[in-house]
Automatic annotation (TrEMBL):
<dbReference type="GO" id="GO:0006071">
    <property type="term" value="P:glycerol metabolic process"/>
</dbReference>
<dbReference type="Pfam" id="PF02734">
    <property type="entry name" value="Dak2"/>
</dbReference>
<dbReference type="InterPro" id="IPR036117">
    <property type="entry name" value="DhaL_dom_sf"/>
</dbReference>
<protein>
    <submittedName>
        <fullName>Possible dihydroxyacetone kinase, C-terminal region</fullName>
        <ecNumber>2.7.1.29</ecNumber>
    </submittedName>
</protein>
<dbReference type="GO" id="GO:0004371">
    <property type="term" value="F:glycerone kinase activity"/>
</dbReference>
<feature type="domain" description="DhaL">
    <location>
        <begin position="1"/>
        <end position="49"/>
    </location>
</feature>
<keyword id="KW-0808">Transferase</keyword>
<keyword id="KW-0418">Kinase</keyword>
<dbReference type="InterPro" id="IPR004007">
    <property type="entry name" value="DhaL_dom"/>
</dbReference>
């Protein structure tokens, strides 16, 4: 089961990149998830795990 921020990170595969380095490839970015969204999702997961260990 995917949690909302994982779904959001996966959804970026369907969006054409317009900003950052990926913005230079335009339409060719379709089908690839945004690395920043994936990294943010991992950060949220690790923060939640750390919080539950306290």
């Amino acid at each position: 089961m995917k949690i909302p921020f994982e779904k959001g990170a996966e959804y970026t595969k369907e969006i054409v990149a317009r900003m950052g380095r990926a913005g230079t490839v335009g339409e060719r970015s379709l089908g690839y998830p945004d690395a920043g969204a994936g990294a943010h999702a991992l950060g949220v997961i690790f923060t939640e795990i750390a919080g539950s260990l306290k």
